[in-house]
Specification:
The protein has 218 residues and is of the alpha+beta class. The protein has a single domain (3-38, 49-212), classed as Nucleoside Triphosphate Pyrophosphohydrolase (Alpha-Beta Complex). The chain has five helices and eleven strands. Strands 1, 2, 3, 4, 5, 6, 7 and 8 form an eight-stranded mixed sheet that branches. It has a three-stranded antiparallel sheet with strand order 9-10-11. A hairpin with a 2-residue loop joins strand 1 and strand 2. The radius of gyration is 17 Å and the shape is globular. The two termini are 16 Å apart. The mean pLDDT is 90.
Length: 218
C-alpha cells in the first residue's frame, strides 16, 4: 500500500497543492523539532536586516513510493560542513525566492528546474546564527529523477521515503553543550545521519503537513 493510500504521485501532488494553499502549521509545526533553548529566535518574528535563502522539498517516485531528497554537505566546507540540509542557498539580487530554490536544486543535485512543478511553500524560518531567513518550497519531480551531487559542495544525496520521514521511531533527542550552555537537540535519523537544527525544523512542519493528509482511521 502506498503511503497515505494515494494511488499515484499525481494524486499526492494534487492533495499537497490543495493543502499548502490553506493555513500552514507554521511555528507550531517548526517547534516540534526545535533545539531548546534556541537563542535569538522568536517564533513567528523575522528581524530586520536578514538575508533571504530558499530551499526545496522535492517529492518524487522511487520504486512506487514517494520520497523526498536531502543533501549531506561536504565535510570540508567552512560553514555547516558535514550537516544534512535541503537543496538550497542564498537568493541572488533580482531573483525570486522560488527561482532561487529551483536554481540551487539544479546546481546542488543536478535535476533540471524545468522538470519540477512547484506546489506551494512552507513557513519562512529565521536562522539566528547566520541571520538568514529560509524560505522552503515544495515541488514534485516528473518521472524518476537521477541526482548528481555537486562536486565540492554536496558529499552525497540522501533519498528518504516519506513513510520513513514521518516514522516516530526515527525521531530522537540528545543533549549537546556549546559555550557552556546545554541544549536539548531533537533530530531525525536518516541513512546513518542525524538531521537537526533549522533543517529539522523545516522538516517538522513538512511532517505535520504530511500527517494531515493521512486518512482518518476507521
Amino acid at each position: 500500500m502506498r503511503w497515505a493510500d494515494h494511488a499515484s504521485l499525481a494524486e499526492l501532488a494534487g492533495r499537497l497543492k490543495e493543502r499548502l494553499a490553506r493555513p500552514l502549521p507554521g511555528t507550531d509545526g517548526q517547534l516540534r523539532l526545535s533545539p531548546r533553548p534556541r537563542r535569538g529566535w522568536q517564533p513567528g518574528r523575522i528581524p530586520p536586516g536578514c538575508r533571504d535563502a530558499a530551499a526545496l522539498l522535492l517529492v518524487f517516485d522511487r520504486g512506487l513510493a514517494p520520497h523526498t531528497v536531502l543533501t549531506l554537505r561536504h565535510r570540508d566546507l567552512p560553514q555547516h560542513g558535514g550537516q544534512v540540509s535541503l537543496p538550497g542557498g542564498v537568493v541572488e539580487p533580482g531573483e525570486t525566492l522560488q527561482a532561487a530554490a529551483l536554481r540551487e536544486t539544479e546546481e546542488e543535485i543536478g535535476i533540471g528546474r524545468q522538470t519540477i512543478q512547484i506546489l506551494g511553500a512552507l513557513t519562512p524560518l529565521h536562522i539566528p546564527v547566520s541571520r538568514f531567513v529560509l524560505h522552503p518550497f515544495v515541488g514534485v519531480a516528473a518521472g524518476s529523477p537521477v541526482f548528481a551531487a555537486s562536486d565540492g559542495e554536496v558529499e552525497r544525496v540522501i533519498e528518504v521515503p516519506l513513510a520513513r520521514l514521518v516514522d516516530p521511531a526515527l525521531h530522537g533527542e540528545e543533549s549537546r553543550e556549546r559555550d557552556g550552555t546545554v541544549y536539548e537537540v531533537p533530530f531525525i535519523a536518516v541513512d546513518g545521519e542525524k538531521v537537526w537544527g533549522a533543517t529539522a525544523m523545516v522538516l517538522a512542519e513538512w511532517i505535520t503537513v504530511l500527517e494531515s493528509l493521512r486518512p482518518s482511521p476507521g
